[in-house]
Amino acid sequence: MAITDTDSLRAEALAQVEQADTLDALESARVAFLGKQGSIALLLKTLGKMSPDERQVAGPAFNGLRAEVTDAIAARKAVLEAAALDAKLAGETIDLSLPAPESPIGSVHPVSQVMDELAEIFADLGFAVATGPEIEDDWHNFTALNMPESHPARAMHDTFYFPDADAEGRSMLLRTHTSPVQIRTMLQDGAPLRVIAPGRVYRSDSDATHTPMFHQIEGLVIDKGIHLGHLKWTLETFLKAFFERDDIVLRLRPSYFPFTEPSVEVDVGYSVEKGPNNTSRRVVGGSGDDDGHAWMEVLGSGMVNRRVIEFGGLDPDEWQGFAFGTGVDRLAMLKYGMDDLRAFFDGDLRWLKHYGFAALDVPTLSAGVGVGA
Fold first, then answer.
1. Side-chain half-sphere of 41: how many Cα atoms within 13 Å?
2. Which HAMAP family does the record cross-reference, listed alphabetically (predicted)?
3. In Å, how far are 138, 139, 156, 176 from 165, measured between CA atoms?
4. Which residues are annotated as a binding site for Mg(2+)?
5. Counting runs of H as helices and runs of E as strands, what totals does the chain give?
6. I need a surface site. Which of 21, 48, 261, 311 has the fewest CB within 10 A?
7. What is the DSSP secondary structure assignment for residue 100, as one 8-state letter?
8. Which of the four pLDDT bands, split at 50, 70 and 90, describes residue 1?
């Protein structure tokens, strides 16, 4: 092709680019001129058949033609894209008065929610939160709580032991209750003392109402002149605040725990009511002796055994106290109508979506500890 013939090719290419009214038409023009089999691409291939003198003249002209057409296509593409955007904005309107779409956020697990509720209630009663290790030695978990080596709770089928002992030769295990925290806190902080100890505990047990890992909360008060009346008032105040009902009635029954003496089981009155889908659920409230009501055990408690106070480094002739403990998971089941403890740990997102709590609804006594339910 003679160099003068590039003028007509340039005019043809620039005309097609300018006349392209869509991005698809512009792409077709690009392929026709700059594609592998395009007119300008074929023109550039002829340079290989020219003599050096001819290439010296034709090369800059042909490459200049390719650059000019490439720039024209880029400019036309920018114009067409801007026009397409303007048309889209003109045809699609946004109502700024509508609320913004809700962003997905996580849910608070019912166990975490109830933990927060309990901490809020007991903080209002002057209790601090104490924590301790989940991998415990048998002295803190058993001996210091008045459970000698012959105690059946130390059996391998009841407790998860580790094969190794600590530096003092004591057997190591996953704690079976949060009571070791009481010993550690007495040894560390002395008396007077008012703490709750929430956390995970482990026992070799599994069925609809028991799991190998579950959650407990225990309370401990050590002071001078403490008696069962203080214990009953504390538990009654706590349960009324937690279930958010004033008609909570307690029944205290004599019992036995090695770490308390005397010991009492605490029952609450409840009734059975129909829930959604004609299901039945226990509703705490009223006296268990009323018509349509019954008694249900919810926690164990008692006055701290003298030996436990001694193991805590205190003089039992000077200091007295009471302790109590209950399952956090069971409290959640009672308050929010759940019927299978195992569902708490199945990891089913549908269950959590149904029973979970909004992340920003923090329980407070003024707004209600059951906020978000």
1. 11
2. Phe_tRNA_synth_alpha1
3. 10, 12, 15, 17
4. 261
5. 11, 13
6. 48
7. P
8. very low
Cβ atoms of 359 and 146 within 8 Å: the answer is no
Candidates 1.10.10.10, 3.30.390.30, 3.20.20.70, 3.30.930.10; correct CATH number of 110-355? 3.30.930.10
354: nearest Cα among 369, 339, 364: 339
Q: At what angle do helices 52-91 and 23-34 cross, to 10 degrees?
A: 170
Which residues are annotated binding-site positions?
261
C-alpha distance from residue 62 to each of 9, 58, 73, 220 (Å): 10, 6, 17, 93
Angle between helices 110-124 and 228-243 (to 10 degrees): 130
- Sheet with 161-165, strands from edge to edge, namely 135-137, 171-174, 161-165
Q: What angle do CA 160, 329, 286 make, to 5 degrees?
A: 135
Q: Which residue has the tokens 């047990």?
A: 205
Cα–Cα distance, 224 to 239 (Å, whole number): 25
Q: How many CB atoms lie within 10 A of CB 294?
A: 15
Distance CA 366, CA 372 (A): 14
What percent of the chain lies above the pLDDT cut of 70?
A: 95
Cβ(354)–Cβ(340) under 8 Å?
no
Query: b/e per residue, 301-310, with b = 16+ CB within 10 A?
Result: bbbbbbbbbe
Q: What is the pLDDT of residues 163-209, one digit of tens each?
A: 988 888 888 999 999 999 999 999 999 999 999 999 999 988 766 66
Cis peptide before 101 (omega within 30 of 0): no
pLDDT tens profile 274-321 = 766 667 788 899 999 999 999 999 999 999 999 999 999 999 999 999
Sign of the dihedral defined by the CA atoms of residues 98, 99, 103, 105, in that order: negative
Average pLDDT, the chain: 87
Encode pLDDT of 332-356 as tens digits. 999 988 878 888 888 888 888 888 8
